Amino acid sequence: MAEEAQRLRGSHGGGGGGGDDMGGVGRGGEEREMLIMALMLQTLMLRCCRPQVMLALVTGRQVEAYATKLFLHNQTSDVYLWNKHLSDYIHAGDRYAAVECFIDMNRSNVDCDSVTLVIALSAVTGSNDLLELGQQIHGMAMKLGFNLDVTVANSLINMYSKAGCLSFARKVFASMEELDLVSWNSMITTYAQSDLEEESVTHYLGLLSDGFRPDNYTLASVLRACSSLTSGLSLVEQIHVHALKTGIVMDN
Asked: Strand (E) positions, 137-227?
């Protein structure tokens, strides 16, 4: 693993030598930590496919993707080092330490980037007592122009959805200039879990109209919505036919 980590670092143009200024962990150790985190998140995603864990998976995917993105940054920059520490706290499951680190970062006048915001949002998501801070991060994203970043916007949708602030999630979704499958899945799942079945189905149709291919999470959520509709059986049959035609395999 150490040799592979060193090879990967070399492929990104990294040098040899000492550890970073803030973490006290050698570069090879940092690489291994990130690889282990990515593997753990991948395992979680493979095991979990039910609608009720969909939004948790969204955050897992974002953190994993952005942890990888950290290696592409200038590894001597302040923002890289702060992002690395934020990611370490999230990996350790210590959201409050991550929040404190984020606040210290801002007090140090270090400019945030989209990576910072995604990790910070993952720290406050799922905790109603941190919702106000999440709203402040939303305001910061708007001020810096990162609210147009699709991954930051998806993180905001996830945060508001888990806090039960559906109207805010809707506003973020409606304001997005770019949508991806995660964006659509987040709203489809949120509506299904909020007993807004027709909205869930409408967004499923919107996903198809935008040319996206549903995945298992999409289907699990929309089928849950269909089960409560009067015309649900007909819709389920249509979704089933579409899944067969497109080769989508449903786990359940």
From this structure: none
Residue with tokens 């916007």, as numbered in its chain? 153
The structure's pTM equals 0.67
> Are residues 141 and 237 located together in one domain of the fold?
no
- Residue 211 has phi, psi (to 5 degrees) of 85, 15
DSSP class of 109: T
Contact 133, 124 (CB under 8 A): yes
C-beta of residue 221 within 8 angstroms of C-beta of residue 252: no
Instruction: State how far the Cα of 143 lies from the Cα of 125, in Å rounded to an integer.
Output: 20
Residues 156-189 have pLDDT tens digits of 999 999 999 999 999 999 999 999 999 999 999 9
Residue after which a domain boundary falls, among 154, 178, 202:
178
